[in-house]
Design brief:
Layout: H1 7-20, E1 37-39, E2 49-56, H2 78-81, E3 89-98, E4 103-111, H3 120-124, E5 143-145, E6 152-158, E7 165-169, H4 174-184, H5 193-205
Antiparallel strand pairs: 1-2, 2-3, 3-4, 4-7, 5-6, 6-7
Length: 216
Amino acid sequence: MLTTLTRAQFEEACRRYVDAHPGDRCSEVKAYPSGWCWHEHSYVPGLGYLSRTVILPRPSGVEASGSEELGDPTAVDDEATAPVPPEQYTCRQYVVYSPTFQVPTLYFTLHDPSGSPMPLDAIVESALFRRHALPSPGGNAFALTLPESSLALLSQGDHPTLGTPSWYFHPCHTSEAVSEILAESNDAKSGDELLRWMEVWFMVLSNVVDFFAGSQ
């Protein structure tokens, strides 16, 4: 049983996952997040990653801008009286390889309709995360730490391949969580171990991240 992945195994696992879960198709028994695409670095080999873009509704606690207000109900023009579509918040999600922990790692960004990055307190309240899955940042704008841990659960960092500012989940306990489920699982067919590794990884992250929120 694989407890960690080499970079080559990570790349193969990602490719198998994309092939097994294309588009919005879901298994009759299990549902895994779809819509992912594999990307290679433009000129450096071995820095590939998965990505997708999801449109989320306005986070709770964030005031709507004037663009979401209704038109004047006394106006004659149909365009003026029609409701303006809800504000859209763009979440770009990435699955990259952690060479330190030898496991996949989730990176993401969340921007408001104007293109500005959302602050951490609004991110925690966004539809990206399951309700009450994360504690309040407690005034910390750069990282989120669980009360019983000294290690940040959610931190800021540059995307390993793109070099762009992002948020990421610390992968220190990923191997333990995935290995525990794989050890109890008997449904992986011969040759599907890499695919199953990625599916279980998404299952583990899904305890906190709502991969089915919003639209693609």
